Amino acid sequence: MPPADTRPRRSQPLARDAMAYVLAGGRGSRLFELTDRRAKPAVYFGGKARIIDFALSNALNSGIRRMGVATQYKAHSLIRHLQRGWNFLRPERNESFDILPASQRVSETQWYEGTADAVYQNLDIIEAYDPEFMIILAGDHIYKMDYEVMLRQHVDSGADVTVGCLEVPRMEATGFGVMHIDKNARIVDFVEKPADPPAMPGKPDTALASMGIYVFTTKFLADQLRRDAADAASDHDFGKDLIPYIVKNGTAVAHLFSQSCIRAETEREAYWRDVGTIDAYWEASIDLTDVVPHLDIYERSWPIWSYSEVQPPAKFVHNEAGRTGSATSSLVGGGCIVSGASLHKSLLFPDVRVNSFSAITEAVIMPNCVIGREARLHKVVIDQGVRIPRGLIVGEDPILDAKRFRRTEKGVCLITRDMIERLDA
Prior knowledge:
The chain is of the alpha/beta class. The chain is 22% helix and 27% strand. The chain folds into two domains: 14-289, Spore Coat Polysaccharide Biosynthesis Protein SpsA, Chain A (Alpha-Beta Complex), CATH 3.90.550; 315-424, 3 Solenoid (UDP N-Acetylglucosamine Acyltransferase, domain 1).
């Protein structure tokens, strides 16, 4: 990593002079029907939270008290969640939380045209708060990270931009923006989704992939956004336009996620997941049911903040032969009733009812669902508010499953209300 400069270090946390700006307008098209009614950052995760809560919680736990969230597509569910769960930041304590929907503030015909434009269109709001630093975050990844560490590296290195990066196997980096760095972690080239990703110095089988996390001084970022906005040939995107320009014309430095990730004692590796496909979402969710999961959501020192409704405890009833309410290796949310049914390796969000003689294995069931009697469900993701009819069997006949539901290559079935309604048509 680049050596620290000789300038005196500030004693107070840099996070107190930073604003976190979360880009949460993505369509999430690879999640198919799961994002028909909500943006990807609003998708439920972990039994209580939404995906966006991880980026926001990282900011809060890092000491950042000014936040903005840019929304665009299918934003109602996301905005409602943010209003309910993140309204505790107070202006009288020099705190702020702004929800920034695309509202044609620059032009009556222009929505957010790219990630950089989503910041540019709100520059007046940002500059009114006068933060010294801006940290740009993607709102659709699962991870725990102390942004203060990245801010400190940014100041100490004297960089124009610091880019958060993951070390990944080189040939798995073809779907990312990839950094080519020198021995001092200065980015000398940025390649978007390369067929042959450049390797890290001294690590021929490893590449550095961009996390979509950037740190700037606010003044430098504002200058770059105004320059980019005036460029008619630009896509107004951080990864496609701003970062490559700064790499060529300024100083861009890579920050390794391993240096700032937050790990509980039980976590074996630095955890970061893009749950942008049905399979990836299901796998990350079911992993939480392991005795020692890759992500410890029970760690109290770095909590994941979210909106929590007032609910009664989960309830398991009936203890008869063949009709016992039970759960093994499962996470069950508040307000759930497991009535004479069995769960194994499953994750239930709040207010789910599972009726008698049903068998549920490796299932992710979102809030307010009802599972009818005698259902057998295996390797499923069930969207919010679905009523599973009595006797439905999923996960045993791949051909039939593919006709009725969204079935992935790995055999996971997504079930939505519309799909259930078509069964009765």
